[in-house]
Amino acid sequence: MTDPRTTPDPNIVSKRTPARVSVPISDLNRHAGHKRDRQVLLGERVTILGSVDGHSYVVTDKDNYVGFIDSSHLCADHPTTHRISALASHTYGEANMKSADRISLSHGSLVRVTEEIEKFAKTEYGYIPKQHLCKVEDRDTAYVETAKLFLGTPYLWGGNSNNGIDCSGLVQAALTASGIPCPGDSDQQEKQLGKTVLPNSRIESGDFIFWKGHIALAVDADTLIHANAFHMACVCEPLDAAIKRIKDQGDGDITAHKRLFSVN
């Protein structure tokens, strides 16, 4: 059986047109106009495969996730030069923090800088503080520290932004900022990320801890960071407390302990 998240429906596919997301956040849905499966951010590149009822059927460049996006949330493909490296930022009407703000952008959003004016970078969406940006080719050096940016962010099923994020969205945001390819959902991440650690091995910072339908990142041997529905937020939680709580609520034991051996 094919996975509709990664295998386009041949009955819908009629073209292959590169495009970019043109709004701060857009839902990516399994069916046109239905509930959210994941989200895409401003500037992310997709390929339009077809259209249904005002929605574009797309596959994302970032993780090859297939779904529908409101067609009005897409624009023609264009180069991007920078990404938002802070948890969030605003664009302003002028290169002045007291000028009117236009839109709010989440960590990971991609923009094209056309000019730098003192402390601001000019983009088609307005002026962005330069300290909130890095070049698209720059990589974060520690993905656990990137994940910590999201501490306190509200939990949102299928969320991928500072407005709301889920367990797999948190891990994907952190790894993507470090230039590490990462699929969108926790079951995909369990299959594709890293290598399985030997049973009873000590947990190290950066390890992935999986339960059925859930992923957490190890901060250290005794602490996890994860976005979860119990706290309805991204939190740090003692490992032993999380193991007990998750088992007590009926979601079972840890299903996998994995590690990116090539990453320090």
Describe this structure in words.
This protein is mainly β and 264 residues long. It folds into three domains: 17-76, SH3 Domains (SH3 type barrels, Roll); 82-135, SH3 type barrels; 143-259, endopeptidase domain like (from Nostoc punctiforme) (endopeptidase fold (from Nostoc punctiforme), Alpha-Beta Complex). The chain has four helices and 23 strands. The chain has helices spanning 143-148, 167-177, 186-192, 239-248; strands spanning 17-21, 25-29, 36-41, 45-52, 55-60, 66-70, 74-76, 82-84, 88-92, 101-106, 110-111, 115-117, 120-123, 126-129, 133-135, 160-161, 164-165, 195-196, 208-211, 214-220, 223-228, 233-238, 256-259. The protein has a six-stranded antiparallel sheet with strand order 18-23-19-20-21-22. The chain has a five-stranded antiparallel sheet with strand order 6-5-4-1-7, with no helix packed on it. A three-stranded antiparallel sheet has the order 11-8-15, with no helix packed on it. A hairpin with a 2-residue loop joins strand 13 and strand 14 (126-129). The longest helix is centred in the middle third of the chain and has 11 residues, at 167-177. The radius of gyration is 19 Å and the shape is globular. The mean pLDDT is 96.
